[in-house]
Amino acid sequence: MKNYYQPEIETMPLGQLQALQSERLVKQVKFVYDNVKFYHDKMDAAGVTPEDITGIDDLHKLPFIDKDDLRDQYPYGLLAVPLEDCVRIQSTSGTTGRRVVAFYTQEDIDLWDECCARAIVAAGGTKEDVCHVCYGYGLFTGGSGLNGGSHKVGCLTLPMSSGNTERQLQFMTDLGSTILCCTPSYAANLGEAVNEKGLKDKIKLKAGIFGAEPWTEEMRRDIENSLGIKAYDIYGLTEISGPGVSFECEEQAGMHIQEDHFIAEIIDPKTGEVLPKGEIGELVFTCITKKAFPLLRYRTRDLCRLTRKPCSCGRTHVRMLKPKGRSDDMMIVKGVNVWPSQIETVLFNQGYQANYQIIVDRIGNNDTIEVQVELTPEMAAEASLNVAAKEKKIVSALKSMLGITVNVKVVEPKSIVRSEGKAVRVIDKRHLYQ
Ligand code: DLL
Q1: pLDDT tens for each residue of the chain, 434 residues long
Q2: Mutate-to-test residue for ligand 1 from 70, 134, 141, 256, highest number of ligand atoms within 8 A of CB
Q3: FRET pair for 135, CA 20 to 30 Å: which of 30, 349, 403, 418?
């Protein structure tokens, strides 16, 4: 069995890594220019030729592409190989518009599986492990990505897909799952169910690989405590292959981007200027090894910061710090920028769990925002429970965090719908009036 921790690549000295990226970029730009009319025209319009790109220092010369381009080119406009060379598609959920379809050759799938295998190894996975995958299978990339990675590592793979919590717990206890892969919100639900059913001593989980949605450090601690595991973050997006574009190592201090396959830049989302190292901005990816759907300078809309501070795990690949969310997750309420993650932090700091929802509305010309959060079972059982006092305490903490008054409703345990995949935290009814 090949060892998917690849020190010769993952701990490569920076100069060597950048030379490898430059070599791959030059080839990739030529390949894409020659095979995708859309890029050909876009580069011509920007006055850039493949010969202008001699290495990573020339990357900024290339035009960006964004989700609207992908939607406009749906379904085949960005395909760089003949359709008969493709073996798979995956797709985004398409909740905010036309679906985006990504194509894969077998080589692309191997590369993606390899990235996920590296993530599993970084979370301590070996062929001795039982890897319980309850990301959704199907068009969503979570299930098949981690499934492929788990096979490569040689773990016994449980392709559970999402939902049916009873069955998840049964397999988890009967087959002794050791690594859990799902969204952090579903991991929180599983943690709740494990404790309610008194199964904590019967499960053998040691690690979890959680991603596909933003989650806070407070939520990480909550999941780690409820399941008795170490929780690792993993990031990716359908357009750039799926999970495994970056992942955490044992340091849990940012996700190493697989720089032998993807070049990351941080740009100012307003001007498109590349920002100096360490600044927060929009993450942009260039795929330098993919064949069927090789995006160049793709604007993810995810906001984060990169760091090249040495990591004690030895990996030299740049780390992305927890994304703050997508630029389109930010709500402007009463003129103030509000991120769901800020609200989550306040709630966890007061002992609540991941069962909350944010409802934004407009009455006349005024925005309203309400946070509904469930009492934990322990809180609900307190003899001295004072819901009004609890609500007041959250209102006050949110006022200092956000600078606006938020209406807060503390509700009974189990009254907020549980998520099995990506959680829907925000219901913004203002869109209904547009
Ligand atoms: O969510 C791929 C994935 C599956 C990643 C399983 C990790 C685990 P999409 O459905 O295309 O792909 O959504 C991609 O989800 O642009 C981010 O906004 C968000 N996202 C993904 N991972 C994280 C993460 C998958 N770890 C979009 N933290 C991305 C925060 C994340 N946001």
Answers
A1: 556 778 899 999 999 999 999 999 999 999 999 999 999 999 999 999 999 999 999 999 999 999 999 999 999 999 999 999 999 999 987 656 678 899 999 999 999 999 999 999 999 999 999 999 999 999 999 999 999 999 999 999 999 999 999 999 999 999 999 999 999 999 999 999 999 999 999 999 999 999 999 999 999 999 999 999 999 999 999 999 999 999 999 999 999 999 999 999 999 999 999 999 899 999 999 999 999 999 999 999 999 999 999 999 999 999 999 998 777 788 899 888 899 999 999 999 999 999 999 999 999 889 999 999 999 999 999 999 999 999 999 999 999 999 999 999 999 999 999 989 999 899 999 877 65
A2: 141
A3: 349
Return the residue whose CA atom lies nearest to atom 10 of ligand 1: 92
The pTM of this model reads: 0.94
Q: What is the rounded CA–CA span in Å between residue 77 and residue 37?
A: 8
* 197 CA from centroid of ligand 1 (Å): 30
Atom of ligand 1 nearest to the CA of 255: 26
Any ligand 1 atom below 6 A from CB of 141: yes
Helix axes 184-196, 217-227, angle to 10 degrees: 30
Q: What pairs with residue 320 in β-bridges?
A: 255, 306
| Angstrom distances, CA of residue 269 to CA of 98, 254, 280, 301, 328 | 22, 21, 10, 8, 11
For ligand 1, what atom is nearest to the CA of residue 242? 2
Closest Cα to atom 15, ligand 1: which residue? 212
Helix ranges restricted to H, 36-99: 37-46, 67-72
For the Cβ of 238 lying below 6 angstroms from any atom of ligand 1, the answer is yes
For ligand 1, mutation pick of 96, 181, 213 (most atoms within 8 Å of CB)? 213
142 in contact with ligand 1, CB cutoff 6 A: yes
Q: Tell me, which fold does domain 1-326 have in CATH?
A: Rossmann fold (3.40.50)
Domain coordinates of the chain in residue numbers? Answer: 1-326, 331-433
Number of H helices, E strands in the chain: 12, 21
The closest-lying atom of ligand 1 relative to the alpha carbon of residue 135 is: 6
b/e per residue 278-300 (b: at least 16 CB within 10 A):
eeebbbbbbbbbbbbbbbbbbbb
- Cis, peptide link before residue 294, omega less than 30° from 0: no
Q: Could you tell me the distance, in angstroms and rounded to a whole number, from the CA of residue 141 to the centre of ligand 1?
A: 9
Domain 331-433 has CATH 2.40.160.40: no
